[in-house]
Amino acid sequence: MKNIIATSKYILIAAILLAAVSCHDRGTLRSTTSLTGWTSKDKSAAGFAPEKYYSGQMTPPGTVLIEGGSFTMGAVQEDILFDWNTSPIRQQVRSFYMDENEVTNKEYVFYLNWLEKVFPPANEDYKHIYSGSVPDTLVWRDALGNNEILTKTYLRHPSFKDYPVVGVSWRQATDYCKWRTEITNERILVENDVLYNLYENDSIGVEGKNHFNTETYFQNPYLLFDGDSTIYNKGLPDYKKNKHKNKNSFTGRHVEMEDGLTIPGFRLPTEAEWEFAARADIENREYNNIRGRKKYAWNGKYTRSTTNKGIGAAGDQLANFKQRKGDYSGMAGWSSDGADITMAIKQYPPNAYGLYDMSGNVAEWVNDVYRPIIDTDANDFNYYRGNIFYKQKIGRDGKVILIDYSNMEYDTLDNGRIMVKDLPGTIKNEEINERDAFMRSNYKKAYNIDAKDGDLASTHFYEKDEDELDVKPRMYNSPITPREIGEEGLMIQKYDTETRSTLIGDNARVYKGGSWRDREYWLDPAQRRYLPEYMSTSYIGFRCAVDRLGPMTPKRRKRFHSDVVR
């Protein structure tokens, strides 16, 4: 009897509380997580995209997540060169994805094969597209060295297929990143039954402007292949449909940005990102502090392993670098690092982020334009120098302009190599103008490579306007290659005859890390060097990065200081 009375009592209390809540919510929309009262079911029924389809950003193939954070960027060693361009500064880096190893010959040759197939060099419309992307294999030559065999075999012979590609300029590395974005997103659409495999369909010719491009697809899927709808498969399930009615036609819908299926875009890592990832201070974290400062990509102050963990054993070298003058590998039968030049990827233990060869093997291009000083006062968040802001070019008909054979542009580099600016089939972009930047507080112009260090405002003509000057003053008096085109359409090769005081200019790009031909000093992730963006060497390669969207890490965020023992 007592149990019955107690139960009745609880039911009465619950009823009173429910009534109170009902009175309080009377006149409001039903409970939802939406600010408008629309549930995901409501949106689907009306043809709007429900949010439930997105489950988080996909890790791009071949990459690992680098969780961002604050770190001290700069040198920990003595500045023996006394150039003061690696002074320690505090920087914040956003999370991003990074290739776990350098781009290899095998991967780069696939890129070349694709260019040769889609833009046949024999076709006059595609001249210079393929040749402009081929690495300079002659970087292996030496006036007093016997390396001629490497000029013929290093890039394409299967013995070197897993070796990092070299002889690639900054410009070529950047173009590869763009292509990798398109070929990866194309594969994603194929795997999601939105796009047919274009290379297995005999009725579809993948050539010239007829190839997949992400930006063009998002602008209008039927701008691709001149509107040929047969390139599309079933499509994604429509919001209102659970099944396709006709398996042989496009009955679903196209991928949209809101679906989050595609890769945002491969690119070269910034200098801050590369150094942050190489240093991998995360393994020395103690709560919100870092214990000590790392000299290399691994822990410790020596280049040899002190444990038997991972690849190798105690006493083995942890990177491929030059030991001393005339010693690139050590004694025969007792090799120090197992290589006289470059070596295959993943032969040494990775750092704490899972990245291989961040010290040694080859140095790597990063995205930044070189300047002697990184100005923390200018920006201490995701620092990068090299921005040129663009917008899509709109024609008189109000539509975007696609690049084709009639408006395709080539760029003659200072060393005479000819490269295409943008591939046919892509949307034509142009620099923003003063009208686009009007009343903006975060930027005032399109060209920001020399911002606060080389632009007019940073010279003693800071009170002038560029339109008032016949010649724009140059803070950095770097060499200038005369640009004269001969009768055959080739540049007349001339050297700069003026006296110059520096090699620094707006086309000088940073490269980081030591290589197979560098001494131990350059293995420090903080060290920085530069080379013109059109030049290449036998010791500089590259790897790609992708921006992390949304949370810094896919892990559920913990309560502040939850790991502190109280």
Strand and helix map with partners:
Elements: H1 2-25, H2 40-45, E1 63-66, E2 69-73, E3 89-93, E4 96-99, H3 105-118, H4 148-153, H5 170-191, H6 214-219, H7 271-279, E5 285-286, E6 289-290, E7 330-331, E8 334-335, E9 363-369, E10 390-392, E11 410-412, E12 418-420, E13 429-431, E14 508-512, E15 528-532, E16 540-541, E17 545-547
Parallel strand pairs: 9-16
Antiparallel strand pairs: 1-4, 2-3, 4-17, 5-6, 7-8, 9-14, 10-13, 11-12, 14-15
Topology, number of strands: 17
Any guess at the CATH architecture of the domain at 60-192 and 261-386 and 513-554? Alpha-Beta Complex
CATH evolutionary superfamily of the domain at 60-192 and 261-386 and 513-554? paralog of FGE (formylglycine-generating enzyme)
> How many separate helices?
7
How far from one another are the termini? Answer: 48 Å
What does this protein structure show overall?
The radius of gyration is 28 Å and the shape is globular. The two termini are 48 Å apart. The longest helix has 24 residues. The chain has a 4-stranded mixed β-sheet. It has a 3-stranded antiparallel β-sheet with strand order 1-4-17, with no helix packed on it. A hairpin with a 2-residue loop joins strand 5 and strand 6. It is built from 7 helices and 17 strands. 15% of the residues lie in helices and 11% in strands. It has a domain of 301 residues: Alpha-Beta Complex (paralog of FGE (formylglycine-generating enzyme)). About 2% of the residues have low confidence. It is an alpha+beta fold.
